[in-house]
Amino acid sequence: MMQRSRDLDGLQQRLGYSFRQMELLERALTHSSAVSPAKRTERSYQRLEFLGDRVLGLVIADLLHRSYPKANEGDLSRSLNSLVRKENCAAIARELDLGRYLRLGESEARTGGAEKEAILADVTEAVIGAIFCDGGFEPAYGFVERVFATDLQAAIRGRADAKTTLQEWAQGR
């Protein structure tokens, strides 16, 4: 257990946030497969992921609104969608090396759960939710702003994701 604590100290440094309630960070890193079915709701990252998804969306929307005052709603929406999509959140998890800290059930670990895009995206959102629960909106805002900074700068200039491009094309016909 002492080694795990040291590992989480290193993760907190990488996150740029120190938890007062370490159990929130531990829960944010716990996949439902690592918890008995009766305790999944309270001991896995699912509820923190739900909250973190909403905090992420709000922060990114605010950052886009502030950063691009001349952008129209459609451009802002496309940028928001590209920033909060699963692939982008998973990339953030890889940059932070969150997969290394995941608690997975035996079967999920055997099948490479720590590298699965959906799990990595979920854990990114769960960490955001944990920071929000532990420290409030300001630390969560700062974390999102910091880890999404590079992507945010390119958001409006970048192309829409493939699904959005296809939808816009289909609607135009």
Account of the 3D structure:
The protein is mostly helical. About 70% of the residues lie in helices and about 0% in strands. The chain has 11 helices and no strands. It is globular. Residues about 1-5 have low confidence and may be disordered.
Give structural attributes:
173 residues; mainly alpha; globular; disordered N terminus
Task: Explain the layout of strands and helices.
Blueprint: H1 2-15, H2 22-28, H3 40-43, H4 46-67, H5 73-84, H6 86-96, H7 106-110, H8 117-135, H9 137-147, H10 149-155, H11 162-171
Helix pairs in contact: 2-8, 4-5, 4-8, 4-9, 6-8, 8-9
In short:
This protein is mainly α and 173 residues long. The chain is built from eleven helices and no strands. It is 71% helix and 0% strand.
